């Protein structure tokens, strides 16, 4: 374990325990005010724990017992970089100088810092913006530069606080792709309320609610089989993994799932995930005829209420259907069903 | 121009006019004569403050219904005001030069000298620097403060020092006697050159040391009625009151010598 | 907050820097009348003073020995005072804006006192501190340091009255800029001094610049505290305002000419710094 945090902050009603292994990404998933930002502040050194221990790569960053600090490493000595929803690029510095800021601040020579900056700018694909001022960048560009700046500081831990929240919907896929690419080897904690961010960027998910971690586990598991109420309310997504066939995702069980590919240019055989909401799934007793749909055979395992609807789970899928449908089809555990979902309701992402 | 713009312009003009009227009124100086009595306006040098306040009180007691208004400032400021038409009835100056300016302009009647004043050395109580004579003021390291040559007390200082053949090295040449006295009472200066009357007024805050060479620059105070006065009689009576034995006694009590 | 643009946006008027297509927001028409009066109130006396100047002898009046000495002393002491204000005022503003010390709001009020104090009172206060019989003056006297009647006294008097201007401008700019950029910079590994130098001060540069100009202008115009605390001697303590006041006694023409010179110096300093703008 390279990053471990156990801390209480009574003034904010927070009592959390987190850990992230080297090179992995942990998503803190939870609603606004759940305590995600407090957890990040504790890691970054902008907040003090009342009680607890924070360690990174074996070094104690903070330790407190009953409000008494017994160890404290100042923010600038932690090697922990924070990227918030606002890119916060220094307005008086060019893009290049922004990215070179970390290396310079850590005492590297002007030339070495400039080389590092160029490398990271090229890695984000924005090398040609190096001479611009932040005011002349779009929101998406600025956020990608901010990522390059954070990584150029070679942080031992990268903190991302809702990095997509302030961006237009149409630029978020590109930013996610940049992050997927750059976070591969980087130890990261990502705070988000967006299931998709967690799905695509995180190896593991910790669901935070009311200042506590209420659930944690591998991303696919938490998102597809949520145990906590909050995770269930926002997650419960249907996730089917497989390989890219050029027009769909071939699953291990032999189906090909068709859907809207966010990265159409990926090579054949690439690992991909098909994602769709339970509400988009229709259940039938026999193969329906007509419009081309994805169909999945299965057996009903559980039926549980979910708002006005009932969530019906098969081995691999969840479907939200009306109580009338459940009654008409006699959907009780053990019943064989055919689940269908329109290709237009399915998003296909690279994993 | 639209109707609205014209209206705005009219309002602007009216406001400007109102403002200039107000400014004009404010510039008139002392207000009109009191309805129930007569006001006599006396312009006097600032060093005469205490003396003229007493003389004016006595004068008002002798002349029921008359209100004496004292306007006290530096002599040269007062001259400038009278030249610009300020409504003064009597003018008492701290030196003959400034009075002569008004005589030359025919703005005052014939001046009469009513008091003199001479320089004295002022030292902090106890005289820590041990100053005993004018020559002692030239001692190296002694912090001496005098009036700047541009102001009357400085001119008197220069005349005295030149007459005695001494070169002084003051640490400061102040704007007024008050400033010189302030530096001495604060203990910042070891000695200062001021008028006898200033030493008298400062009480026990300073000690005065007379010196023989002060005769070289005797400052004479002249007084005159202002030509444009509306009350030549009353103005004349005030001048006489200053010259009367009672007036002279008041002046003598404050350190002034007779002319 | 200042906006930082490298090139003017398209459609921006070169003269005003404003887009002519933009309709200005709610400004009531009547506001122009008092605004014009306000402008006149400031400008008219300056113009009126200009009409009083004896232009034929102007050059001679402002280049007399005493005038040159006063101008040189004024520029030198005002510049030194500005440096003193920067050295003491930047850290003070930082502490007031960012610190969390007990009694900080009291400290802020006290630092602002010279703003509302009559300068003469400031002079008296300085005398009680640095004067011969003052709080610190007595010990300094023992060490052979004499402050009263020296150019140092002028600088002290000017710094005393000018410091609040710098602190107020800078503290406001620091509060507006906020701490978020500083947090980001610390996360990138920058220590507090690096953050101050490379992030905080560049961000508040416009506020720092206007505070510096204000304190220089205040130092240049300082009169009351100087005449009370420092005295008046040509070339040592008699700055331009003191020279103007003294010349009024004997040579009103010279006084007006020097006043105009003082106004000109102030205008040049303000215009120069405003035109350079917040470049970098």
UniProtKB/TrEMBL annotation, chain A:
Keywords: ATP-binding, Molybdenum, Nucleotide-binding, Transport. Coiled coil: none annotated. Residues 289-350 form the Mop domain. Transmembrane segments: none annotated. One of its GO terms (molecular function) is ATP binding. It comes from the Bacteria. It holds the Pfam family TOBE. InterPro entries: AAA+_ATPase (IPR003593), ABC_SmlMolc_Importer (IPR050093), ABC_transporter-like_ATP-bd (IPR003439), ABC_transporter-like_CS (IPR017871), Mo/tungstate-bd_C_term_dom (IPR008995), Mop_domain (IPR004606), P-loop_NTPase (IPR027417), Transp-assoc_OB_typ1 (IPR005116). PANTHER family: SPERMIDINE/PUTRESCINE IMPORT ATP-BINDING PROTEIN POTA, SPERMIDINE_PUTRESCINE IMPORT ATP-BINDING PROTEIN POTA. This is Molybdate transport system ATP-binding protein. It comes from Isoptericola halotolerans.
TrEMBL record, chain B:
Residues 1-22 form the signal peptide. Pfam families: SBP_bac_11. Gene3D superfamilies: Periplasmic binding protein-like II. It comes from the Bacteria. The keyword Signal applies. Keywords: Metal-binding, Signal. The keyword Cytoplasm does not apply. Belongs to the bacterial solute-binding protein ModA family. This is Molybdate transport system substrate-binding protein.
Automatic annotation (TrEMBL), chain C:
Residues 1-20 are annotated as: Disordered. It is found in: Cell membrane; Membrane. It is a multi-pass membrane protein. The chain crosses the membrane at residues 30-49, 70-97, 109-130, 142-167, 254-273. The keyword Zinc does not apply. It comes from the Bacteria. CDD domains: TM_PBP2 (cd06261). Its main location: membrane. Residues 71-273 form the ABC transmembrane type-1 domain. InterPro entries: MetI-like (IPR000515), MetI-like_sf (IPR035906), ModB_ABC (IPR011867), NifC_ABC_porter (IPR006469), Sulph_transpt2 (IPR005667). Residues 1-14 have a biased composition (Polar residues). The keyword Nucleotidyltransferase does not apply. Keywords: Cell membrane, Membrane, Molybdenum, Sulfate transport, Transmembrane, Transmembrane helix, Transport. The complex is composed of two ATP-binding proteins (CysA), two transmembrane proteins (CysT and CysW) and a solute-binding protein (CysP). Belongs to the binding-protein-dependent transport system permease family. CysTW subfamily. Part of the ABC transporter complex CysAWTP (TC 3.A.1.6.1) involved in sulfate/thiosulfate import. Probably responsible for the translocation of the substrate across the membrane. This is Molybdenum transport system permease.
């Amino acid at each position: 374990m390279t990053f471990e945090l156990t801390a209480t902050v009574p003034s904010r009603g927070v009592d959390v325990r987190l850990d992230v292994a080297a090179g992995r990404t942990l998503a803190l998933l939870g609603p606004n005010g759940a305590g995600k930002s407090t957890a990040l502040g504790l890691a970054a050194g902008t907040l003090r724990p009342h009680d607890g221990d924070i360690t990174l790569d074996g070094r104690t960053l903070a330790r407190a017992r009953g409000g008494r600090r017994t160890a404290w490493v100042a923010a600038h000595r932690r090697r922990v970089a924070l990227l918030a929803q606002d890119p916060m690029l220094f307005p008086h510095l060019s893009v290049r100088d922004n990215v070179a800021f970390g290396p310079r601040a850590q005492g590297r020579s002007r030339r070495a810092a400039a080389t590092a900056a160029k490398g990271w700018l090229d890695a984000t694909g924005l090398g040609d913006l190096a001479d611009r001022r932040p005011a002349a960048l779009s929101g998406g560009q600025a956020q990608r530069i901010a990522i390059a700046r954070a990584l150029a500081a070679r942080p031992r831990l990268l903190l991302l606080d809702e990095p997509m929240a302030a961006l237009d919907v149409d630029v978020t896929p590109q930013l996610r792709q940049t992050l997927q690419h750059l976070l591969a080897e980087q130890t990261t904690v990502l705070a988000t309320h967006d299931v998709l961010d967690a799905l695509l960027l995180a190896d593991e998910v910790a669901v935070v609610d009311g200042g506590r971690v209420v659930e944690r586990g591998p991303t696919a598991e938490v998102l597809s089989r949520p145990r906590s109420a909050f995770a269930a309310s926002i997650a419960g997504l249907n996730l089917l993994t497989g390989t890219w066939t050029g027009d769909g995702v071939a699953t291990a069980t032999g189906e090909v799932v068709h859907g809207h590919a966010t990265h159409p240019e990926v090579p054949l055989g690439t690992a991909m995930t098909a994602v769709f909401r339970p509400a988009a799934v229709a259940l039938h007793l026999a193969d329906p005829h007509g419009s081309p749909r994805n169909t999945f055979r299965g057996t009903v395992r559980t039926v549980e209420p979910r708002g006005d609807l009932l969530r019906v789970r098969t081995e691999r899928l969840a479907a939200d259907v009306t109580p009338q449908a459940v009654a008409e089809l006699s959907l009780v555990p053990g019943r064989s069903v055919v689940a269908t979902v329109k290709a237009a309701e399915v998003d296909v992402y690279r994993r | 121009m639209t109707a609205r713009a014209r209206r705005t312009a009219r309002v602007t003009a009216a406001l400007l006019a109102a403002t200039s009227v107000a400014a004009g009124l404010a510039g008139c100086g002392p207000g009109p004569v009191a309805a129930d009595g007569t006001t006599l306006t006396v312009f006097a040098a600032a060093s005469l403050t205490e003396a003229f306040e007493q003389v004016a009180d006595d004068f008002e007691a002798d002349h029921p219904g008359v209100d004496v208004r004292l306007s006290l400032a530096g002599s040269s400021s007062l001259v400038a005001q009278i030249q610009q038409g300020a409504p003064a009835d009597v003018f008492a100056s701290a030196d003959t030069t400034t009075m002569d300016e008004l005589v030359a302009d025919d703005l005052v009647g014939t001046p009469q000298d009513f008091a003199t004043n001479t320089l004295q050395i002022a030292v902090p109580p106890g005289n820590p620097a041990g100053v005993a004579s004018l020559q002692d003021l030239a001692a190296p390291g002694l912090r001496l403060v005098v009036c700047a040559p541009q102001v009357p007390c400085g001119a008197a200082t220069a005349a005295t020092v030149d007459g005695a053949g001494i070169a002084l090295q003051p640490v400061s040449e102040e704007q007024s006697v008050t400033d010189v006295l302030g530096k001495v009472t604060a203990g910042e200066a070891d000695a200062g050159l001021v008028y006898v009357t200033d030493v008298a007024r400062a009480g026990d805050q300073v000690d005065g040391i007379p010196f023989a060479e002060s005769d070289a620059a005797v400052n004479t105070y002249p007084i005159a009625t202002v030509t444009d006065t509306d009350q030549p009689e009353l103005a004349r009576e005030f001048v006489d009151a200053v010259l009367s034995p009672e007036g002279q006694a008041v002046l003598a009590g404050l350190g002034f010598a007779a002319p | 907050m200042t906006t930082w643009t490298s090139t003017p946006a398209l459609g921006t008027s070169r003269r005003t820097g404003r887009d002519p297509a933009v309709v200005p927001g709610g400004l009531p028409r009547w506001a122009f009348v008092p605004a014009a009066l306000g402008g006149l109130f400031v400008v008219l006396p300056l113009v009126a003073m200009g009409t009083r100047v004896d232009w034929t002898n102007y050059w001679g009046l402002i280049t007399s020995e005493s005038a040159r000495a006063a101008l040189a002393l004024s520029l030198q002491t005002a510049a030194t005072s500005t440096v003193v204000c920067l050295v003491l005022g930047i850290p003070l503003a930082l502490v007031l804006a960012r610190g969390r010390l007990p009694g900080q709001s009291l400290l802020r009020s006290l630092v602002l006192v010279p703003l509302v104090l009559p300068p003469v009172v400031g002079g008296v206060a300085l005398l009680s501190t640095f004067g011969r019989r003052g709080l610190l003056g007595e010990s300094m006297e023992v060490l052979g340091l004499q402050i009263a009647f020296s150019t140092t006294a002028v600088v002290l008097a000017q710094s005393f009255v000018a410091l609040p201007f710098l602190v107020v401008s800078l503290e406001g700019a620091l509060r507006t800029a906020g701490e978020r950029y500083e947090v980001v910079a610390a996360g990138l590994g920058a220590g507090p001094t690096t953050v101050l130098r490379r992030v905080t001060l560049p961000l508040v540069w416009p506020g720092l610049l206007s505070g510096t100009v204000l304190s220089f202008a205040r130092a240049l115009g300082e009169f009351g505290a100087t005449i009370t605390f420092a005295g008046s001697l040509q070339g040592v303590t008699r700055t331009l305002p003191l020279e103007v006041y003294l010349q009024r006694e004997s040579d009103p023409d010279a006084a007006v000419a020097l006043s105009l010179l003082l106004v000109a110096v102030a205008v040049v300093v303000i215009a120069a710094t405003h035109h350079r703008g917040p470049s970098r």
